[in-house]
## 1
Amino acid sequence: MTKITFPDRFLWGVSTAAYQIEGAWNEDGRGESIWDRFAHTPGRIQDGSTGDVACDHYHRWPEDVAIMRALGIPGYRFSVAWPRIVPAGRGLVNQKGLDFYNRLVDGLLQAGITPLLTLYHWDLPQSLQDEGGWTARETATAFATFADVVSRSLGDRVKHWVTHNEPWCTSLLSHQIGLHAPGWQDWPAALTVAHHVLLSHGLAVERLRSNAPGAEVGIALNFDPAWPASPSAADYHAARRHEGYFSRWFLDPLYGRRYPADMVEYYIQEGYLPQGLAFVQEGDLETIAAHTDFLGVNYYTRRVLRDTAAPDNLPQTVFAAPASEHTAMGWEVHPESFYRLLNRLHFEYLVPKLIITENGCSYLDHPDENGRVADGRRIRYLSDHLIAVHRAIQNGVPVAGYFQWSLMDNFEWALGYTQRFGIVYVDYVTQKRYLKDSAYWYRDLIARNGLEQYKSDG
Ligand code: FCB
């Protein structure tokens, strides 16, 4: 066993999102969000559930903060619900909504926990959706005003800000694939949304800079690194295109490279950009490329791509190992992709600082008769991924923190309560929390600022 130690002041934390844990969907003046509407629409959520109650964190947050404190977790990433603060999306500010997050932030600081606040984790006010949602350019300005309201209230105490969580999900997953709210299947709309989300990020950065001086600001992107299934040229191109679709479309404009030319050409050819990049107005690309202090990295799995349409793409050696492990989400466990991704972001995109804003796994382990939740597979997943992070740091990749997804089991979007990502188990009937084995393991890891290298052969 080798001891692995992380850099001094490495920020360890756990992550959550408002709609997935808060509940209290119509309390204290909160407006309706697109996720309320979506979850209340029959057929949208796998188990027919909603986030109406979720983990009841809105009422139980002191207990949740106490759990983090007891585990010695130094950082907490959460998101604020836009419709709780500005119920109609623009205009009237709901003081009770702001009060809630002020109490939470104060509670965290009293517990010695550094807050990292995400402004948008998908719960757009429904009234804005009624006006076109993110397809409307005005939604970007409404978001900037919302960022202004939140940072005026919390900017004196919150020193880490994420504007958006996973713009790929907000745009493509929600408007092209249609699996997330608002559930559209419309390519041109999805690409318009992507642009307005990126624009709103740039506009919000300006507001955060003035209201939270000295704070660190970033955006969190999700990555599922693409691997060609075989050495064929067709599979290579399929993988390259997937990365264009999933990450380069966001990463390139954010880092001043504009939209990737190969993807623009492809989208025009397919009819996905009927008016080309007409949604890009003068100055937008400069706004989007606003300087940020860190990039938030959400990583869970990789994707293996095979071009089945190419006639000459004969089956060759397929790299996807049949013996690969998969989590309850069906996601392949592949820490090597995490390692490569971190290197690429720093050495290719020259990202000056990275914070892992999400990494974790769903396994359906339940409490035994003594209340113990033996989630050894999660411990192993997290260990292996942290070893990958550590290897990247050894190469010189500036990773400044790691936020495990998630503090507790919660509403997993279109999959409802069928998945459990937490290091804390939630019984949704009693709302009782049980610390899983991984919670104690994470506590010890944080206390030692490192771990013993896990030997998979026993
Ligand atoms: C990410 C989301 C997060 C959670 C995890 C499993 O895409 O940001 O809210 O659902 O996946």
## 2
Amino acid sequence: MNHSTTQAGSEKQHTVVIVGGGAAGISVAASIHKRDRDTDIAIVEPSTTHHYQPGWTMVGGGVFRPEVTAKPMAGVIPRFCSWYQDAVTAIEPEINRVRLADGSTIGYRVLILAPGLELNWGGIDGLEAALGSNGVTSNYRQGMASYTWEMVQKLKKGTALFSQPPMPIKCAGAPQKAMYLSSDYWQKNNCLSDINVQFHNAGAVLFGVADYVPALQRYVEKYGIATHFQSTLVAVNGTSRKATFRVTTSEWQSEDREVEFDMLHAVPPQRAPAFIRESVLANDGGWLDLADDTLCHKRFDNIFGLGDVSGTANAKTAAAVRKQAPVVAENVISTLRKAPMTAAYLGYGSCPLTVENGRIVLAEFGYNGVLQPSFPKWINDGTQATRAAWWLKAKQLPTLYWHVMLKGHEWMAAPARRSPH
Ligand code: FAD
């Protein structure tokens, strides 16, 4: 292994320090190196395994084997980077320093924050203890999508609940993707009519961008799913198989309703990691306070961010990272050279909604829900379920993730240009 796995200890200094070696951290490191091979880059990342999380939905639907969604971190962190295998606990932006869990510090000229988000399992009473038995599962939990698939195959009759927490969450479509793939399996195995499928969404609509709602609604009707909006999962009792939902009944009132289940696919509320949320770097919502276009911090001009931690109004997806990484890379290089930043991110994000095994509604949109399709309509009409989009997700995207995006090959991801000020 050529890249140095650095033992933290004494004070270290790097030109660029990246916090997080997930989809965003690795992609941006590769994109910087592609532009300037001499830039000294360090990545701080505690995990030994890198996860391709978009694959977890497919594991939960029995399409992918779990092994295809994970690789050793040592093989994913680029060899040209120094790797500090530790967690960042604090940022000291006034003195250009990050603090690590072992008490050591690293100085930087430019800092890139890509630690993803925190799944707040404790935000739903009893959920964490209930996960993994009595039919309580979550594709959002690392290693648990196989249990989802096991439960789906076992269930022949009864009640199956699928919950979605308040926004923002990563891959906003994933709670319903699990539901559609499960319903498709039950329908193909002639037991859907004996299963009461319910979707409980803390939000008020099926999907945040109206153009995609009709196609999704058709599948809701096809599977006979009962939708409950403004219904937030607040407690789970695994042993008695009861879920409690807080339902908004009027502008000022809500009431708690208990629902018995045979299977529950739960998604927890989500927030930025504490070292961001509770720092001067956060916006009012607790997310990283970045300029929408440059992805540079609004108050610290040598701090950038991308991925799920960002407070920008895009969909939190790996697809967003694909377009963000080249923008951050280009603007970081400009900053190091004391040149104006010229690259702009237009808010692209995408969500391949797996409405059945074999078809996907590929939602692609930018800031303010403006549609940003990657393909002409005759290849993929994003507002309809298509086989082409399934082929992309099931056959192409894992390879594109591991071998294109994480390697700095910026396929269809050229940055937009900032308009001159
Ligand atoms: P992550 O990939 O989560 O990586 C964050 C990294 O930071 C981790 O390696 C973590 O260990 C590290 N880290 C955390 N804290 C610290 C710290 N204190 N110090 C140092 N390092 C730290 N996206 C799509 O585009 N399409 C999909 O179909 C899709 N489906 C999804 C389905 C599910 C079930 C889930 C869970 C996600 C899905 N996503 C999808 C979303 C996608 O996985 C994320 O948007 C993407 O991984 C974000 O990348 P990131 O680098 O910001 O975060």
